[in-house]
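User: Hi! Is it possible to get a structure for several chains at once, not just one? Here's what I have:
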Amino acid sequence: MVLSIVLSGLAIGCIYALIGIAYNVMYSASRVFSFTAGTLGMAGGILGSLFILKMGLPSWSGFILALAGGAMLGVVTEIVAVRPVLKSLDQHLYVLSTLALALIVQQFAAIEWGTDAQPFPRIFNLERNNFDQQFWLPMLACVVTIVGLEVLYRRTLIGHAFLAIAEDNYAARALGLPERNLRMTSYALAGVIGALAGFAGGQMMLAFFDNATQLTFYGFVPVALGGMGNNRGAVVAGIVLGLFQQAANFLVGGVFASVAVFAAFILVLLARPEGLANVALGRRV
Amino acid sequence: MDMSTTGVRPARTSLLRSPALGSTLPWVLLTVIAVTLPLFAGGYWGVIATRACVYWVLVAGLNLLVGFAGQLAIGWVALLTVGAYVTSVLAAGNVMPALDPYLALAIAGVAGAIFGVIVGLPALRLRTFYYAITTLGFATIVRQIVLAWASVTGGGVGVPGPIFHPPFDSPWGFYYLCLIFAAVCTWMTANIAGSRFGRALTALRDAEVAAEASGIAKSKLLMVVFLFSGATAAIAGGLFASLQSYITPDAFTTELSVLFFIGVLIGGRGSIIGPLLGTILLTVLPEFAAPLVAWSTFLYAVLLLVIVLAIPGGIAELIDFKNRRPLQSNRAIVPRPDLLKRLLTQDTEPGRLTLEQVALSFGGVRAIDGLDLTIIPGQVHGLIGPNGSGKTTTLNVISGYYTPQGGVAKLDGVVLTELAHHARAHMRIARTFQTPRIVGEASVLENVMIGGTIDGRGTFVESLLSLPRHHKDEKMLRESAMLALSAVGLEQLAGVRADRLQHSELRFIEIARALMLRPAFLLLDEPAAGLSAEEIRRLGALVVAISQAGTGVLLVEHHADLIFDICHHVTVLNLGKMLAAGTPAEIRSHREVVNAYLGG
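Assistant: Yes, the chains can be modeled jointly so their relative placement is included. Here is the combined structure:
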C-alpha cells in the first residue's frame, strides 16, 4: 500500500508541479498570474481523449495536436486577457480578465464535451509491477519539462532573452528585445506545458471539465509555496503536496485530506506570503 | 467668480450626494416595480424576482468587499452555503430540537459573520490573485465538508429548506420577506458607502499608502466589513434554502459564486445602484433566452471579459451622466491662505519632530547615513540634494515605511519608529507623495474628506444605521473638506471625479487632504514637481501660510528657488549624509553645496 501511495503521490505531484511551472512561465514573461493555468491542464486531457479515442487518430499525432491546442490557448490568453490589461498592472485587472477567459473555456468544454468525466486512452502497453503508465507518464513529463527548460534557459539565445525579460522588463526592452513576441512565445510554451500535464495525467484525472478548477487551485499551491517564478521550488513543493495529499487520502479520507492541504496552504502563506523560497517584497512608496 | 468678499461658497447639494447612489430616477423606478410586482407579473416571475432579492442580499454585502474595498473574494458562495445549511439544519431539527425558522436565520447570520472573518483573515496578508484563489479554496472545502458530514447535512441527499411563518409562507409573501431584507441591505450598504468608512475602503483599494497616512487602520476596518458581508451572505443563504425548498451541495457551485462576483463588477466598483442592476440583469438574463440557459455562465464570463476590457467602470459609469460634462479648460488654482487659520486649529502646542543619527542601508547601499534633523513647529524645513541622496527615504522613515537600522525618529518623546503606519496620523503627522495617491473614481471632495477620517466619532454600526452621530460626522467632515479645498483653491471642482483633473490639481488635492488632519507636522514630497512657475509661486505662499498657522513643514524639493524663498532652515543631503545645514543664505554660499548640487 505504501508503494501505491508513493507512486500516486509522486504522479499527481508531478502534474501539480507542471501546472505550477505553467503559472511560472506566464508569470516570468508578464508579472501576471493567470487563472487559465488549470484550464490548460483540462484542455490537455480533453483534447487527448478527443483526438485519440473519439477521432481515432494515432497516439503520437493526438499528443502533438493536444499540445498544439494548449499552445494556441496560451497565445489566446496572452492576446485576449493579458496584453490589454498590462498597461495598468497596478489595478490587477488581469485577475478578472484571466478568470473570465478561464471560465469561458471551461464552460465551453462543459457544454461541448459534457460534464461527465470521460475515459482517457492508454498510450503505451508496458507495465511492470503495478508501475503503470498513469504513474510514470506524469513523472516522465515532469522530468522532460524540467530538463528541457534548463537547457532552454541556459543554453539557448531565446532562453537568455526569456530570462532577461523576467529579470528586468524595461532594461530588456531598452536592449531592443522583442518583448511582445517573447511574451507570446512564453505563453505558448506555458500552454504546451499545461497541456502536457493534462495529457500525461489523463489516465489519472480523466478527461473532465472540472479538472480546470482543481488544477488551478492545486497547481497554484506549489507556486505559492515554492516562490513565484521559481521552477525548482515548484517541483519540490508540487511533489510534497502530491505525496501529502495521497497519504492523507488513504489514511484519513478525502475530505480531511482536502482540508489538511488547504489549511497547510493558508498557514504557510500567512507565515511567508512571498513563499518559502526567499524573494523580497516590492517598494510601496 | 467673486471669491474675495464671501467666505466659502456653499457647494450645490447635488455635488455632495454620494456618487455611490447615483441619480434618484433608477431608485424610484426600481422601488415602484418591486412593490407592485404581484399586480402585473405571474407567479413564475415572482420566483425570479425573489431569487434576485436573495442574491442581492448577498451581493450587497459582497459589494462592500469587492466594489469598495477591492478584495477579490471570488468564492463568496462559501458563506451562502454556511447560511443555507445552518438555517435549514437548525429549522429541521437534525441535531437538536427544531428551532423557529426566524431564530435559525438569525443564528445563521451570526455564524456567517464569524465565518466571514475566517475567510477574511488571509486578506490582511495576501493580495489579489493569492487572495482570490484562497477564497475559491474555501468554497471548495465548505462544499466537501457539507457533502461528507452526512449525519447533519444529509450529505448528497440534502436537507429541506426552512419554511417561514405566515404571512411569509405563500410565494408572494416570501417575495415580500426577501424584498424587505434586500431593501434593508441596500439602505445599510448605501449608508456605509456615503460614510467615512466607505471612503476609507475605497482609499485602501486605490491608494493604500495614502489611506494609512490618513490614519486608516486597514485590518480593523476590513474585519468589520468581513463580519457584515459574512452575516448578509449567510442570511441570503437561509432565504435561498427556503426558496429552493430543498438543498443539496450541488446547488452551491463555483458558477453561482462567480455570478455574485461578476454582478458586482458588471455594476461597477464603488457604486450601489450598479451592482444592484448587475445582479438583476444576471438573474433575469437566462429567462429571456431559454435555449441559452446552459450557456448562462459562459455568457456571464464573456460579459465580465467585455466589461474588464472595454468599460472598467461598469453600469455605474454608463449611467453617470454628470461626469461626462466637459470641465472648464482654462481653470486656475487660486489658493486662499487666509482660510487656513480657520482650518488649522491646534489643540495643544506640539513639541519638535527629531531624527537622531538615523541610518538605513539597502544591501550595500547606505541610503541614509547618520542623519540628524529637527523640524520645528511653525517653520519650513527644506530638504534638498541630488537624486538618490536619501530625501524620500528620510520621509519614509518618518512615515514608517522603512525601519532605520540605527537611530530614532521622535516626536514629543514618543519613538515614531515603533508605531504602526497609521498611528502617525493620530500624532498629527500628515504627508503627500511624489506621485499623487488619489482615489480616481471618487469625487475631489470625497478624496479630501478621506484625510479627516480619524476625526469622525461615530462607529461603523452608527453609520450602518444612519444614526445622529453619523450625520454629525459627515457634516463636520464635509465642511472642513470644503474649507480645505477653498484654502488650496479647488473648491469649484469639489464634485468632479478626481481622475478627470490635471496633475497640478492632484498635488493641491493631496495638500488639502493632508490639511484635514490639522497637521502638527506636514511632510511634502516634491510638491512643485510638474507645476507651472505661477503655480509654484502660489504653492510657496500656501506653504508659508501653513507654517504660519503653527505647522512644522518638511519640504523635499528640487526647485532650489522655492526652497530658498520659503524655508527657514535647509538641510542638504548627499549620498545619505548631511552635506550642509543652515539658513537659505548660508546654504546658497556654501562652497561644497554649490559644487555638488546647485552648480556654480
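The interface with chain A takes residues 72, 74, 121-122, 125-126, 128-130, 132-134, 136-138, 140-141, 144-145, 147-148, 208-209, 254, 258, 265, 294-295, 297-298, 300-302, 304-305, 308-309, 312, 392, 396, 399, 401, 433 of chain B (CB under 8 Å). Chain B is about 55% helix and 10% strand.

User: Great, thank you!
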